[in-house]
Amino acid sequence: MSKPKLEEIKPIDASSFFMIHQKKPTSRCLDFWHFHPEFELVYVPRGKGSWYIDNKISHFENGDLMILGSNIPHNTYYYGQKSKDGEQYVIQIKEEKILGMAEHFQEFGKIKHLLHDAKTGICIAHESKHLIGKLVAEMEELEPFPKLLKLFQILEELQNSKHRKSLDAGRILELSPANAQRIQKVFAIIKNEYHEQLTTGRMASELAMTESSFCRFFLKSTGKTFKTSLNEFRVQRACYLLLNSSLKINVIAVRAGFNSLPLFYRFFKSQVGTTPAAYRKNHFEDLRVP
Question: What local confidence, expressed as pLDDT, does residue 287 receive?
Fold first, then answer.
């Protein structure tokens, strides 16, 4: 099995966590062996197939509800999907945000135990997963603050559930604190300056490294080149603008940091699996399951 890649999770504007509802996979979703520091909640209302988590393979049918702790290597739901009508809700949030709340509000104390148990993965082995999953689905149409409150309710329901089962995914990937801080600094620059002409030379200077050393370090730490990570962020920013503005595609390409329209189309099609126009059209035609 190939080395898992570090995935950079980027919450949408005005939100402290990431959430997506998918009914169709992108080309990247079909085989993406990865990990990330955020813990992840996945609810599958419909579908059957296999989860590929760490060195474990578990099977699901007629939906599933799963929580993965920080930095557990896993593939996407779509990689093991066997049904044609599957869909998934995914929520990803940094553990320290929840733990930070627990430091100030004792009501969050029990949720700390949930996060501890999730370090090796949890699934809900009972039909109650659909009752909790219904709460997850309700989040989609909420504004940021009510959505956050709903997330807290879901975490409480998960903590109180008597039907939690460990996935026993024991191997957890971690960067050293110093290297994690370096990578976070690079991603912070990408997030704030993605529309500028960022170079590996500039990044190397920021980390007090030679350019060649930086390139090797970034590739080893994330599983991808700096240029790939930068363009992936730009494409994801373009996706946000396609769904949340009426801007023309050529304007969106420039705002996302692409000076060449053909280059933008090529990277977009490679990462998303369709054209920008089709992505915008398909999203509004197929937002929710009837």
Answer: 41
